[in-house]
From TrEMBL:
Catalytic activity: an acyl phosphate + H2O = a carboxylate + phosphate + H(+); C-terminal L-cysteinyl-[HypE protein] + carbamoyl phosphate + ATP + H2O = C-terminal S-carboxamide-L-cysteinyl-[HypE protein] + AMP + phosphate + diphosphate + H(+)
Naturally occurring in which organism (per UniProt): Phaeovulum vinaykumarii
EC number: 6.2.-.-
Function: Involved in the maturation of [NiFe] hydrogenases. Along with HypE, it catalyzes the synthesis of the CN ligands of the active site iron of [NiFe]-hydrogenases. HypF functions as a carbamoyl transferase using carbamoylphosphate as a substrate and transferring the carboxamido moiety in an ATP-dependent reaction to the thiolate of the C-terminal cysteine of HypE yielding a protein-S-carboxamide.
Annotated pathway: Protein modification; [NiFe] hydrogenase maturation
Residue positions of the active site: R19, N37
The protein's name in its UniProt record: Carbamoyltransferase HypF
Domain Acylphosphatase-like: 4-89
Length: 759
């Protein structure tokens, strides 16, 4: 007969101080038993008649970094019944539980590094409530021996803290102090160690205008004085990043002077994930070189003790941008930094704790909630699946070519990997292969189904095809824009049987279901399938891939199509118009595309924004969005667009734009009218579908919906309708893999439901 309970706790419960929390809770309630980690999470054996109050407290009072998915109870026998409650050693190996993402330094550790004591000024201070996790993890269960801290033997003082269940460092695997933990040093450009306190010397160099490579949590940053325009110009030249916005790190008090922060912004900045948060900049507070042409600023708080110490010593805001050449993966190793950052960084602030996993900073927005880049602090946090996806097999989604990320579906959860980069770059493609192997091993993922984009030129698709052949696995082809739609539905936890949805899916380019290049789509459907209801009128991508880099090409073809060739000749008099028109007429390297991204480029070029070329993806559209902020949402008279059947024609829009240019209208008004016009045309199609009873909600997805102004104008036009939006998963191609696994899973269930029942 049972005299106790076995309590299984599933979720993010390892490496977050959950076992000492359970120990303290049991002692508080006078209960006996034990708690331990195992591959499924936390297992508690509790000697008591009624565990209800204890179980309720497990959820209600869990540690800050814990997340409880489920608590399961079963009768158990304890023989003999222990006299007290203890913490038992971890058991088994495996990956059925969540892994905790890296977490920003907690207030207690921040206070500790600032106050007299053995950790004052120590750059690697952490506890169970903060510090490195995924970036140092080699295997599960999460114990020190399976991290890059394994080589640092604990000193007696740290050992005492580590073994004391009443201490906040009980079983904090990265625990360290100056006696036994990682060390920090500063290297000059010649590779020689710079004598003196490395933090003080680094801060002095930054004040003198130096650019430093700083080894952080998931990789290196390039740091410099955010207030010094000449230094920023030098950084951009060395990094080959002429215009892409740079992130700024500063204490919250300083950030409030640089940007307009709401309560939502502050809450997101203070989140343990410590992302870069996009906020409205205060004009004139920082040099234009930080974010040329932008009205927003990417800001973050210091999230490691090293950052806190460096900023305190420097006394001002610092640019903190990924340490790499533009387009290459972020640097993570010391030797790699010495080689890759030579000629970029004047000195390197290094340490000897190895980074095992490359993790860029996450980039997010609080108003409304949006994730633009999902990485450090968010990964490997799992995503709950919508109702109707219970009992899914293990599935691997391979993502796309740009903003690559993979997604593992296992045990009713989806694990979307960190941002890996663009697979056109050979170094990023190699990183993609490493990440796939790493995640399969770490999470013991054995997919039964693969899902990928059908584009034959995508590196991710080729990898999926090779894996399917090698292991005899089914490969589900999920078209690009359907994957965007499914990702939005899944992000919003739309039920599998929730009914058809209208998807406004806008991005740069993706292979469409008819074999042409799509990018400005209205789809209707759900997880299993979707059909094209409407789309932007296709226009030639004049010069192929060059059309994405040189906006004037898109303006020329759109103006010509609208009968406004004279305007194009005037705007682009110094460009090879005749040769481009001849190539388009002959169909040479000019495939048709309905791309919304290229439509934005065309309008931007008409206003002289990046007409000759973009230095980074989306630059023209981002500058156009910034111009539109001159007017409130809903205040601008929308430019008209025509609809003929399924085609949304922007020709009337360009005629109205030409008239505005002719009368000298302000660029901000033109930008606002364009955003409003595109949103109004799309909203009208969506509203008609719902009014006709063919759909019950609207979903907004695709990289173009990172444009907050367009999203807001769409919401204005869709008022009164149910609108689904991204909040946890990127709307851009970084969310494709999540959509792919949901489509594959839904089709798997469809097939199973279609099978006749056996006798």
């Amino acid at each position: 007969m049972s005299n106790a309970w076995a309590i299984r706790v599933r979720g993010q419960v390892q490496g977050v101080g959950f076992r000492p929390f359970v120990w303290q809770l049991a002692r508080e309630m006078g209960l006996a038993g034990q708690v331990l980690n195992d591959p499924e999470g936390v297992l508690i054996h509790l000697a008591c008649a009624d565990p209800a109050r204890f179980v309720a407290a497990l959820r209600d009072r869990a540690p800050p970094l814990a997340w409880v998915d489920a608590v399961e109870l079963a009768p158990h026998v304890l023989d003999p019944v222990p006299a007290d409650f203890s913490i038992a050693p971890s058991q088994g190996e495996g990956a059925e539980t969540r892994i905790t993402p890296d977490a920003a330094t907690c207030p207690e550790c921040c206070a500790e590094i600032a106050a007299p004591g053995r950790r004052q000024g120590y750059a690697f201070t952490n506890c169970t409530h903060c510090g490195p996790r995924y970036s140092i993890l080699a295997g599960l269960p999460y114990d020190r021996a399976r991290t890059s801290m394994a080589g640092f033997a604990l000193c007696p003082a740290c050992r005492a803290e580590y073994e004391d269940p009443g201490d906040r460092r009980f079983h904090a695997q990265p625990i360290a102090c100056p006696e036994c933990g990682p060390r920090l040093w500063l290297e000059g450009g010649d590779g020689a160690a710079v004598p003196g306190d490395p933090i003080a010397r680094a801060a002095a160099m930054l004040r003198d205008g130096a650019i430093l490579g700083v080894k952080g949590l998931g990789g290196f940053h390039l740091a410099c004085d955010a207030t010094a325009a000449p230094v920023l110009v030098r950084l951009r030249a060395r990094k080959r990043r002429p215009a892409k916005p740079l992130a700024v790190m500063a204490p919250e008090a300083l950030l409030a002077d640089l940007a307009e922060l709401t309560a939502a912004d502050r809450a997101l900045l203070r989140d343990p994930a410590a992302p870069v948060v996009l906020v409205p900049a205060r004009a004139g507070r920082l040099p234009a070189e930080v974010a040329p042409g932008m009205t927003t600023l990417g800001v973050m708080l210091p999230y490691t003790p090293l950052h806190h110490l460096l900023l305190a010593a420097f006394g001002g805001p610092l640019v903190m941008t990924s340490a790499n050449l533009s387009g290459a993966p972020q640097v993570i190793g010391n030797a790699e930094a010495r080689a890759a950052l030579a000629g970029i960084a004047d000195a390197l602030l290094l340490h000897d704790r190895e980074i095992l996993r490359r993790l860029d900073d996450s980039v997010e927005r609080a108003r409304p909630p949006a994730v633009l880049r999902r990485a450090r602090g968010r990964v490997p946090g799992t995503l709950a699946l919508p109702p109707g996806f219970e009992g899914c097999p293990q599935i691997l989604g391979m993502g796309g070519q740009m903003k690559a990320a993979i997604c593992l579906l296992k045990g009713g959860q989806a694990m979307l990997s960190q941002h890996l980069g663009d697979l056109d770059d050979a170094r990023t493609a190699a990183e993609f292969d490493l990440a796939r192997a790493d995640m399969a091993r770490l999470f013991e993922h054995r997919p039964q189904i693969l899902a990928a984009d059908p584009h034959p030129g995508y590196r991710a698709t080729q990898a999926a095809e090779a894996t399917a052949r090698a292991h005899g696995l089914p490969l589900v082809a999920v078209h690009h824009h359907h994957a965007h739609l499914a990702a939005c539905l899944g992000d919003a936890l739309w039920p599998r049987d929730g009914g058809p949805v209208v998807g406004l899916i806008l991005d740069g380019t993706g292979l469409g279901a008819d074999g042409t290049i799509w990018g400005g789509e209205v789809l209707r459907g759900g997880y299993s399938d979707a059909e094209r209801v409407a789309h932007l009128a296709p226009a030639p991508l004049a010069g192929g891939d060059r059309a994405a880099r040189e906006p004037w090409r898109n303006a020329l073809v759109r103006l010509d199509a609208a009968g406004l060739s004279d305007l194009a000749d005037g705007l682009f008099a110094d460009h090879p118009r005749a040769a481009l028109r001849a190539a388009v007429a002959a169909g040479v390297n000019a495939p048709l595309s309905s791309s919304a991204g290229r439509l934005f480029d065309a309008v931007a070029a008409c206003l002289g924004l990046c007409a000759e070329g973009q230095s980074y993806e989306g630059e023209a559209a981002m500058r156009l969005e910034a111009l539109a902020e001159a007017l409130p949402v809903g205040a601008a008279d929308p430019y008209p667009m025509a609809r003929a059947g399924a085609v949304l024609d922007p020709a009337p829009l360009f005629h109205a734009l030409a008239a505005d240019l002719g009368r000298g209208a302000a660029p901000g008004l033109i930008a606002a009218r364009f955003h409003a016009g595109l949103a109004a045309a799309l909203a009208a199609v969506a509203r008609a579908e719902i009014t006709a009873g063919r759909a019950v909600a609207v979903a907004l997805s695709g990289g173009v919906f990172q444009n907050a102004r367009l999203a807001a104008e769409c919401m204005h036009g869709l008022s009164g309708l149910r609108v689904l939006r991204h909040a946890r998963v990127p709307a851009n191609d970084g969310g494709l893999a999540f959509g792919q696994v949901l489509v594959a899973a839904s089709r798997h269930f469809d097939a199973r439901e279609m099978r006749p029942e056996s006798d």
